[in-house]
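Q: A reviewer asked whether we had any structural model of the full assembly, not just the individual parts. We don't, so I'm hoping you can provide one. Inputs are below.
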Amino acid sequence: MSPHAVSIRMTALADLSDTEIELLQAMPQLPRRRAGQNLLSRAGHEQPPQMLIAAWASYQRLLSDGRRQIIDFILPGEGVGSLTHDPQSSSLAIALTSVVTVDASGLVRAVADRPNLVPGLAHAMRLMSRADSARLHDQVVRLGRQTAYERLLHLLLDLHHRLDAVGLVVDNSFALPVTQEMLADTLGLSAVHMNRTLQQARKDGLFEMAAGSVTLRKIELMQSLADWTPAVSSFKGVKVKHLAV
Amino acid sequence: MSPHAVSIRMTALADLSDTEIELLQAMPQLPRRRAGQNLLSRAGHEQPPQMLIAAWASYQRLLSDGRRQIIDFILPGEGVGSLTHDPQSSSLAIALTSVVTVDASGLVRAVADRPNLVPGLAHAMRLMSRADSARLHDQVVRLGRQTAYERLLHLLLDLHHRLDAVGLVVDNSFALPVTQEMLADTLGLSAVHMNRTLQQARKDGLFEMAAGSVTLRKIELMQSLADWTPAVSSFKGVKVKHLAV
DNA sequence: CGCTGCGTTGAATCCTATCAACGCTCGTGG
DNA sequence: CCACGAGCGTTGATAGGATTCAACGCAGCG
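A: Here is a predicted structure for the entire assembly that you could use as a starting point for your response.
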């Protein structure tokens, strides 16, 4: 079995013992869910906390008149439910593409009950939880105080950074399986304005987009334009080269 | 010693044993900090995780060109640092008024090391952590998909609800020790537009404001206008009447 | 082949920001 | 005691970014 995104991310965050790694690899894979489905409820039944192996999901919320806000993306190796998310919250965890997850109940329980037996995992979970909230802070700043153009660059830099952590960036290029309308719902814009902002940024040579993938061209310029700084999250410094998906 | 906001909030979230309550009450009080100071760093030294006893604080972030975004308010009984917040994050924890906190290191350590010895506290901390992230989700939705008017009502309802949980609301009225400019920086608006939005809402009879306090007048109307629903956070249902501050 | 989802474009409108100025209150110091 | 300044709330006028409405091209697909 090839190392999946979860163990890549976790081992990048903390030193894990053999038993901890075993615990990770023992997480049972759940049936594949299709785009649009709620990861936290299946046929009315609440689902366990999970971690994403492949593909994208999102937290989102709907207003009563149909407006939608995508709150955060959930990328390979990241977690859904529990620990940081209330399953009965009004935020939905929606698959954006066809999605494979593993059941993380065992992991969550081990960390909650006997943190001393799994110190590495406990630490990694804490870091992931902090990263979750740091990302939400970022999102609030984008929406509250940045222009459409800045929001876009900032988000792309964020995704780049997160995907890089699990080896899903090659030559500054990564998959972006998301429609312009979803980006708009993420960045608090209309789809029309999203389109125009994208065009402007491409015309400015900051990045290229084609067939569901992006290639960043002027990262440092983007960073200064968007006031983006890499999260100081305490990575061990492990650098992952490849990932078989 | 009168029951302080922290124990009120914690006991409202979970059944606590006597030793757990003792642990709460044993938290040492830290020296009072004045408005504007960073709760998580003092003369360059990192501060321990804390819980607010009285007054208001906020998480905020500054952009390099001076724009400011207030990300979340921290109210009496709520926590700062660790567990949900990375002390080295780029978000600052700034006191909005003169502030008294207690050192929650012991609490955090007890929950992290031996959760089984303090199951009530562990549960309460989990719920608080979930509430933190639910609030951030709310804030994202406000900024991303609501109008200035809706944002204002939604925020006021939120504050009302949170302050009510620690007995700081009397007759739908509560202290709001915050300038219009701070509200603007919270809701992603300019100070001028904040002022006009406030005037409009007051003229509409939704609430009154005077000398640092608000009185909500048409709560149900506000709720439907702002698409606000109370957090489903699993309160035990304990209802606190008064709080000596 | 027609339909549907997605990206694109143009025009008009509106919400919100910006700039500028003024009144008020309060604390300080002459 | 009054002048002065700072902080805060308020108002008017103007500009601009973003939305809305509408329409069209295109590719994929049953």
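A: Points you may want to mention in the reply: Residues 2 and 125 of chain B are 22 Å apart (CA to CA). The first helix of chain B runs from residue 5 to 13.
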